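Good morning C.,

I know you're traveling, so I'll keep this short. The sequence:
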Amino acid sequence: MSRGVVTNEDLVIPEHHWASVPWNAIQDSVYNIQRHWVDCLTTGTTPETSGTDTLTLLDITLGAYVSLDSGERYTIGSLS
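The tokens, ready to paste straight into the viewer:
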């Protein structure tokens, strides 16, 4: 929902010969992200989710465990 407007869309997930129901959707996402990465490598552009983004997410995830164990607030970036 955006600005009070609701839209419904039907997504068509292609069937790949190497995937099976009910896994078609997740396998299609794997194919699409790998295609995106190859496109970025060949064009020299930054992927939508970069390695930096992934490392930040890992830091947040591990920091949540540190905070849970210690009971203290975790500051993003303090593990490194």
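Safe travels,
E.
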